[in-house]
Amino acid sequence: MPSALILIADGTEEMEFTITYDTLVRAGVSCTSAYIAPADDKGGLEIGNKTAPPFATGSRGINILPDRYFAPLELGPDKFDALVIPGGAKGAETISSNSPVQHLVREYFNKGKVVGMICAGSLAAKTSNLPKQALTSHPSVKTELEKDFDYSEEPVVVSKNLVTSRGPGTAFPFALTLVELLCGKDKREEVRGPMVFPSSTPW
Amino acid sequence: MPSALILIADGTEEMEFTITYDTLVRAGVSCTSAYIAPADDKGGLEIGNKTAPPFATGSRGINILPDRYFAPLELGPDKFDALVIPGGAKGAETISSNSPVQHLVREYFNKGKVVGMICAGSLAAKTSNLPKQALTSHPSVKTELEKDFDYSEEPVVVSKNLVTSRGPGTAFPFALTLVELLCGKDKREEVRGPMVFPSSTPW
């Protein structure tokens, strides 16, 4: 069973996070969300004798309980087939400026694992010093990326094992592209059907 | 500022919930999610000296912390401009079979407030005894609805103040339709732009 590690922080765009996680689960991908704490970590919740990561408050106020804390040594490319970074301005800032995350992004990319970034999450390609290649992002961070990458305005850009996309409106084709890369084209179609997209939807 | 009450339970489809809530917040709608406990209520989380509702485990395993417990006397049509019921087979079953919810649905509908139902959430139109009218749902529950309603296969069906839709793949046009009804056509366009849908997207 393929597996994916999906990062989340306060300010993560909750639609991009949820659409990616849920669509991958529908394809049989085992998903784990890991919480990247801000500099002023608010600490975990005590539940019985365990400490759960605190909930992440999304960019529009939905509180999501991540599956675990981020611990880079336990989350390397030997453990997961894909690493995904969602957008949301504040969440993407926290994630992309975290140096253990940057190291992990390079490891996943260099080992040929699927690396997905959407919206402002694409900033992590720059902060992680990934090689110049085709990439897209939310238009609001285009100017920060166009010098270091071959900037595209396609909804989803696949460059080797780096998959980038633009925003909530492209999150479904982004997630379905990850399904196709991890599970094949047939699985993409199998997952897409029951979601009931309108007939002229272009993905 | 318009306001919306969005119900959530264990087994709610987390994309449908999140896309609706997030899109409405982008339009300036004040959203409140209320947790419908299952028959075997697992109880609230003690945090300091307060009891928060337990997290709702979505249909694909994402844990969401609702804003509050469901308490029908505090959540009537005098308090909110819209009531929304997301899908997810198990979540929709819990919500639509809850008799205080059924009473609330009738109250919102009869007072002319916007009532939104998506996917299996449309079952609540039947369990609440709403009058026969145009409606859609996820194809998997069509047979349960087609005798009592004028069943449609359009992505989003607006019948008076009842708005119904089909699944995760129609959640964006469903949410944008709610924005249009609550905030007007200009706000719909204003919210839609920054989401960056691919150019030929049919909504």
TrEMBL record, chains A, B:
Which SUPFAM superfamilies has this protein been placed in? Class I glutamine amidotransferase-like
What protein name applies here? D-lactate dehydratase
Q: Note one Pfam family from the annotation.
A: DJ-1_PfpI
Location of the DJ-1/PfpI domain: 3-180
> What biological-process GO terms show up in the record?
glyoxal metabolic process; response to oxidative stress
Reactions catalysed, semicolon-separated, are: methylglyoxal + H2O = (R)-lactate + H(+)
The secretion signal range is none
Q: Name one GO molecular function term.
A: glyoxalase III activity
User: What is one cellular component GO term in this UniProt entry?
Assistant: mitochondrion
Report the domain of life of the source organism. Answer: Eukaryota
The EC code for this enzyme is 4.2.1.130
Question: For this UniProt entry, which segments traverse the membrane?
Answer: none
